[in-house]
Amino acid sequence: MSDKDARRYLIPGLERGLTILMELSRNHREMSFAEIAKRVDIPKATAYRAIQTLEYMGFLRRHPTTGLYSLGVNVLRLGFEYVASLDVVQVGQPVIESLRDATGCSSHIAIRDGQDVIYVARVSAANATIRRVSVGTRLPVHRTSLGRMLLTGLSREEFEALYPDEALPDSQPGAPANREALWALVQEDRRRGYVIAESYFQLGISSIVYPVFNADGEIEAVVSIMVPVHEIPAEERERLRGPVEKAAATISGLLGYRSVAERQGT
Fold this sequence. Notes:
This protein is α+β, with helices and mostly antiparallel strands and 266 residues long. 47% of the residues lie in helices and 17% in strands.
């Protein structure tokens, strides 16, 4: 079915409401009615009805003082229900709990959604003082070690489709300078098979990341630990890396993945 034919069956009001929710989700901040109407490019009367409906149903929240709008609790509820339905979360949650116990570090599972990394499971270390991420947190793929590992599953063609422009979106100090610099990093990560990143996304926070494979041998997710140090001491790297590798292999196995050695019967 062509795009033109498909649009014949769309429900305009539903489309506008979902467009408003996606706009608020992308911007990660409160927005005024006028700004929402301008960004989604619909008449103010139509935007008003859509926003009133979304607020009534709990998908939008209007600040009682400023009058600005943000995503409501029902959006989060839908998100958590979606996350809970993912097989990788179901099989991975107890594994990352064991990983946390083995390393003493907060542990996570994340997936990729377009140019975003989404944390779908996490457990905090007992003495964790840094709580930057929670389930549902989105971060830019190109600026995170988890995102780099997720990109190792892409071909060059898929990578260019994801990042069609040479300039990367929302570049920050410390991030890859451009698309080619990111591709070079990803190829190094692919050859290595894991990422150890020290103060890559945030100063004073390091991470160790391994890929999780599904039954088709594709990268389904990543497992990581967050180490609250600027640089991981050399003597600690192997002690911490081993359990992360084991956790990723365990979850991969539970998802039906078999390594080359397993397939060859060795």
